[in-house]
Amino acid sequence: MFLDYFALGVLCFVAIFLFYGIIAIHDIPYEISKKRNHPHQDAIHYAGWVSLFTLHALWPFLWIWATLWREDRGWGFTKIQNEQNELHHDMLKLSEQVENLTKKVAELEVMQVKQSSYGNSTDNPQGDEH
Fold first, then answer.
1. 3-state SS class at 93
2. The pTM is what?
3. Rounded to an integer, what distance in angstroms lies between the CA atom of residue 126 and that of residue 40?
4. Contact between residue 70 and residue 76 where contact means Cβ atoms under 8 Å apart
5. How far apart are the first and last CA of the chain?
6. Domain map of the chain by residue range?
7. What count of other Cβ atoms lies within 10 Å of the Cβ of residue 26?
8. Can you tell me whether residue 130 is helix, strand or coil?
9. Bridge-partner residues for 70, per DSSP?
10. Is residue 50 over pLDDT 60?
């Protein structure tokens, strides 16, 4: 008799635990959107409750929807594209600078060779050997 009541208690505990667990899981996208100050956080919250009735079929989409928004960059697509364009422009400028520096180094090497060959001929104008 005691074991019957104990089993009933365990069964009720597991049912309540699962019920609250499912409710806690369905609220994760809303909590993410609240943390990120999402402009559609109310819609995500209501869709999360609707998702309970669809056995969480909408939940992955709500999670994606909540995580796409970030307060510092918005949806992020145009800002990332602008940043990539700026990086590409900076890379072009840097490659031009490297090219110019390579030319200058080559010119300096040529000048050094000319000076060293000119220096050798002026050091010993009469051809005497030391």
1. helix
2. 0.53
3. 91
4. yes
5. 120
6. 1-75, 76-119
7. 20
8. coil
9. 74
10. yes
